[in-house]
Amino acid sequence: MIGYLVKRLSLAILVLLLVMILLVLLIQFIPGDPARTILGNHATPELMAQVRRNLGLDDSVPQQVLTFVGDALRGDLGQDYISGQPVTSEIGTALANTALLSLASIVLALIVGIPMGLIAAVRKGGIIDRCIRAFSVLLLSMPPYVVALLLLLWFAVDNHLLPALGAGNLADPGDYLAHLLLPALALAVFWWAYLARLVRGSLLEVLGQPYVRTARAYGLSKQTTLYRVALKNALVPITALTGLLLGYVLTGTVYTEVIFNRPGIGSLAVSAVGNRDWPIVRAIVLIYAAAFILGNLLADLAYQFLDPRLRLDNRTEAFL
Amino acid sequence: MTTEATLSVQDLSVGYTSAGSHRLALDRVNLEIGEQEILGVVGESGCGKSTLSTAIMGLLPPNGRILGGRIELRGRGDLTELSDEAMRGVRGSEIAVIFQDPSTSLNPRMPVGAQLTQVLGAHPGKHGSARDNREQVISGLTEVGIPNPQRALGRYPHELSGGMRQRVMIAMALLLDPKLIIADEATSALDLTLEAQILELLLRVRDNHGTSLLFISHDLGVVSQFCDRVAVLYAGRVIEETTATAVLAQPAHPYTQALNAAVPTPATRGRRLATVDGRMPDVEQPLAACGFAPRCLHATELCTSAAPELHPTDGGTARCFALAPENAEIWPDPPSVEDWRTADTDTGQGSETPPEKAPLMLAEDVAVHFGGSRSRFVPATRRRAPVRAVDGVSLTLRRGTVVGIVGESGSGKTTLGEVFVKLLDPTHGAMTFDQTDTTRLSTAATRRFRRRVQMIFQNPYSSLSPRVRIGEQVTEPYRIHRIEPENRRTTAQLLAAVNLPASLARAYPAQLSGGQARRVGIARALACEPDLVVADEPTSGLDQSAAASTINLLADLRTNRGLTVVLISHSLPQVIAVADEICVMYFGQIVERGTVDDLITRPAHPYTKALLDLVPDPEPGARLRRRRLLVAGEVPSPDAPPQGCRFHPRCSFARDLCRTTAPVPTPLDEPNGAGHLSACHFAHDMAAGTLEPATN
């Protein structure tokens, strides 16, 4: 188990390093002079020289990689050359907002999606199952930003139930939560649909397994069999997905933050792309990549922990 | 009905409804199990035997319904009238089931101890404190012969061997000391040796706890050895009920006789095994005729005009008109087992002594090792030894012969089969096929080799692609090997060669019965007319009749086409029925090899002798229950082979020499020594039958 942990961790770090190298190389692929592309046609030579210096474009490529990785390790992701602020402080506050939004939508996705799948499986073929299926198909086939816009229209514009725009004030938790709810919901509903289908399928498969029959044949009640035996087994593949959810929800914040006009790294990314603010774009891509890697890592470790059969020794493997 | 019966099933009818169609799974079934009695229920798949056990447990699926009848459990009254909650209290505590496959019947993500404790927890009033529960679980595990039960508590099912898992299942059944244990195909997935051990354990349980047993099986041989009385189910009806000895010695119903004739025994060598044409009918409502009449050799108009009643027989009762005294004119001679054998023809088994045939494939000192630490960075003390799945096997396959490879699971027989077809290359040793070294073939030569050597895989369903039609699957080898159209046979011809109707070509694998799926696997293997076919457990999971026809098919292919067949099986009787030569494998090595005659008449290795002793004996009175088991325990862990002779820890003849020195295979018949080989220090004494079991 420890050996596996070390192996997976070092692999994750390696992937993160590769992402960083790729990010440095990416600017080299921009046709023409990157500094001109960033600053536009009317930039002064002095300004262009400053940008080149700032991005380290005068150094050799390996040198650039070393500088970027070294700086990043020290927590320095460069300077925003529009505001002159360090990138980390620009991103810092935005990241807190986005992290809270992601977390809220993951929690919302899981606490509604899994029970929906559970109910659909238990009432298989019934009216509730069919309603959940219709709901899922509808949501899965609608682009998520359309769902976000519809939610915004109905809850905020037409009925004034929730505030429409902004992130609210963190000092006032009630206000902050009210502002959080709608964007989180917009991100989560897609996953309700997805999780409901997935949990339903996984649970139905487990319910057909002989060991579920054994549990019933030994006098375990229907409830105990469902929750303690079947659901526990059925949720193992779902945990793998939850890890990936982290990455997808984080990237999903881009459109939610734009639609709900929330400060966050998603909206920051959009404006940075518009402004050709390369250091910010680079830092945000790095964060997204790190989130995906972390999510995958957590999923793998959880899987390993939850399924004892994966803890197989090499020596038993050969004979199975 | 009498009150002292543990369980009495009266006129029980069970039906299933699905998508508007109705099926009658059990039709007015009457059974009674006395205290400490073992009642066997036999029949083909689909005869209703599983429905019987689920109905007794009150666990019929939502589309199943009890249409009539009673299930009386002593002290509980009619189970069909109990509430859900009351029935829940009966399950596990008064009636317990042991299921077929212990590897899927236990929760894979829960340690064994916790699963047993969970059962205790489900029956309040029958369990005490956590500490008492633990004691109770440990004593249960000890009783079923699990070594080191304290450690076993924390083990997950996959960490235990197949035999140990089934013991855990039995421990679960015993936990609350039920009145009745239902063993639903409880030994069908196990090897002959494990089966014998589990049966012995069940007998001990019966004797110590006074439990009654309902033993459901498709294996007439096992049922007759193990049970007190036997009921034969056909199309949802009990068609014969008799004593266990009578069911093999003098079965009265033609169907029981047909089943009986399909059991391979030493007496059926060189003859085709009996098979029954047709299929069991799907019954929608109580039949107004004998359900077996369309398949019966003795059927007359009478059989199709009315449903027969039960008539007394020597051992019990049977539902057949031919047994009624008033019908003596129609059937002057009562039906017998021999009737089913009249169509027998000589299969050519052993007609020519194998050494005279030319060799097709040679294995010389072949070994296959898996795993082990190869890295140089692992310190020598922590390096893991490889698993020696096959360890030094030399063998000659001669053209046109059937060579049987027998052994328990983990003996390396499947691995050896995979080496024959070059799915695996040996770690060392030489493989020669038709004078070419198969370990050094070019890509093109490998392709040609694959055309000539085919494998029939163990599980027919999982080795056929589920979404491709049968017709396409059997002709696929032609496309793979780019065979010219003029050399191809049609789908219908390929299917006909394995006795399947051409209409199946449009079906998907899931629509086939087990026996049909197996035949499709064989048809596919035969499409390119190979020289050698390796059949890995070709009858596992099949009913007696389907197994018999598969075995007949292999024998026909040898006789008619000169095909060389390697038959891998854990069933010695089956191999004896069809093979020319037998290799007995243990722990990666061939411990004895010889012609079938040599092995049966003078087994020269204790392991062979033990396997032979486990073959169900058709002689009345030769019952398993009083026999001392010659082979104890299980195959040891593959990474810790025993010192000296690898069989010695389980051998009842082992002496000091066996514990220190590994025996080498030696020919029994000097000087040519081609035939009979045995890897036992005392081979000659074993063969002569003069070796005494060790006293210590």
Describe this structure in words.
- The complex is a heterodimer of chains A (320) and B (696).
- Chain A is an all-alpha fold and 320 residues long.
- Chain A has two domains: 2-73, no CATH class; 94-313, MetI-like fold, CATH 1.10.3720.10.
- Chain A contains 14 helices and no strands.
- Chain A has helices spanning 2-26, 34-39, 45-55, 61-73, 87-122, 127-141, 144-158, 173-207, 210-217, 222-234, 236-259, 265-274, 278-306, 314-317.
- The longest helix of chain A has 36 residues, at 87-122.
- Residues 313-320 of chain A have low confidence and may be disordered.
- With 696 residues, chain B is of the alpha/beta class.
- Among the domains of chain B are: 105-175, no CATH class; 248-341, no CATH class; 354-601, P-loop containing nucleotide triphosphate hydrolases (Rossmann fold).
- Chain B is built from 23 helices and 24 strands.
- In chain B, the strands form four sheets. In chain B, strands 6-7-8-3-9-10-12-11 form an eight-stranded mixed beta sheet, with helices on both faces.
- Classes of the chains: A mainly alpha (320), B alpha/beta (696).
